[in-house]
Amino acid sequence: MVEKVDIKKHIFIPEHKKLSEDEKKKILKKYGITVKHLPKILIDDPGIVNLNVKQEDVIKITRKSPTAGVTEFYRGVINE
């Protein structure tokens, strides 16, 4: 029998957070873009499957690195 692993607790999986509508509007305005301009993440990606996401949501990914410190990335949710 194969043991299931909670991918969200794996050391190599960075933190994924669904932005609220206000946070989404602020980040898109800050960069002068729309969700379509962001890199994409699939709605069924294991990193966001428990975040109750829908198409056009924005996901903030926070990565920690010993050399770069903390970096933030944004992805637009797609349903393809």
Extended strand count:
4
Decide which structural class fits the backbone.
alpha+beta
Estimated share of beta-strand residues: 25-35%
Rg value: 14 Å
CATH-assigned homologous superfamily: RPB5-like RNA polymerase subunit
Low-confidence stretches: none
Could you give a quick summary of the protein structure above?
With 80 residues, the chain is of the alpha+beta class. The protein has one helix spanning 21-31, and strands spanning 15-18, 40-42, 58-65, 69-78. The chain has a single domain, classed as RPB5-like RNA polymerase subunit (Eukaryotic RPB6 RNA polymerase subunit).
Helix and strand layout, with pairings?
Elements: E1 15-18, H1 21-31, E2 40-42, E3 58-65, E4 69-78
Parallel strand pairs: 2-4
Antiparallel strand pairs: 1-3, 3-4
Description of the structure:
It is globular, with a radius of gyration of 14 Å. It is 14% helix and 31% strand. The protein is built from one helix and four strands. It has a four-stranded mixed β-sheet, with no helix packed on it. It is an alpha+beta fold. The chain has one domain: Eukaryotic RPB6 RNA polymerase subunit (Alpha-Beta Complex). The mean pLDDT is 90.
